[in-house]
Amino acid sequence: MNELIKISDNVYIVNVNVLGLSEWLATHVIIGSNGLLVIDPGPNLCVDSLVNTLIKYFNVEDIKGIALTHIHLDHGGGTGLLIKKLGSVNVYVHPRGVRHLSNPERLWEASKEVLGDLALTLGRPEPVDQGIIIGLDDGSVVDLGGTVIKAIHTPGHAPHHIAYLVEPDNVLIAGDALGNMFNRRIYPVTVPPFNLVDYLRSLNRLSRGSYRYVSVAHFGYVENDCDIFIQRFKDKIISWSIAIASFIKEGIKDPRDIYDELLQSDQELSYMFKFREVHKLVKGASYRAVLGVYQYIDRLLNVEGASIDDLLKMMFSIGNAPTK
Ligand SMILES: [Zn+2]
Known about the structure:
It is globular and about 60 Å long. The mean pLDDT is 95. It folds into two domains: 175 residues, Metallo-beta-lactamase, Chain A (4-Layer Sandwich); 85 residues, no CATH class. The protein is α/β, with parallel strands linked by helices. It contains twelve helices and 15 strands. The protein starts with a strand and ends in a 5-residue tail after the last helix. Zinc ion binds next to helix 2.
């Protein structure tokens, strides 16, 4: 049975246990006086078990909507199937995700390309009726009665990524905008096609908030010192980028070799690899994150002709950009 974790009065995590693996995806349930909202229901693979948990702990007739941080299979793939079981509810997503939910064909093809067999395990998304999908602009608010969620556009992990701020509980539901966490170790989830500039800008934007809690999709939440938690992801992506650029300049061409080099120098990464990636659902996850950064940096240096100095200047100018 899935574990239910309370973050705050109105915010819960369902720790969906799937194929014997727990702490894989945090599905959030947000409670308001007008109803409930589910954020990131997960893939088809998890829908039956999620429904059982929702029935056990909540009144499923009160579920008014499903909101997605982004449409990747592990977060939103089960949306269509869940609606079949729950009945029609509003689905909230970034405006760029709307057409992929109603017609998931391209999403499915791209997922198979990036994830291989894992996509088949997670399951092919079922289309969602376009009439119930609501695109959320940056700053849009969904009012659940007493509790509101505010959409913060946070591109980088995906161009259509949204983080949600739940008020008044002051919980940031970061999705994949920050990265993965396991036993307090972290690394950024920077899978291809990854955009370093967008990702850093989004981290910067999130770091301006003063949250009571920050919850990441894979997996868990921190309380207090949230600014330090966000800063760790910034430091990590900057150090990965510099290291990867140096490896490329040294002539290392194969991303597998670059990953091996990073495993030697980054203890958090090697911890994740050794102790987390023992299950088929998460095998290769940290490699894909490194691959995304590698592809971005390789293009920057070898196609656009930038130097490591240019890369450093770019990262620090984003890091020091004025807040708005
Ligand atoms: Zn994810």
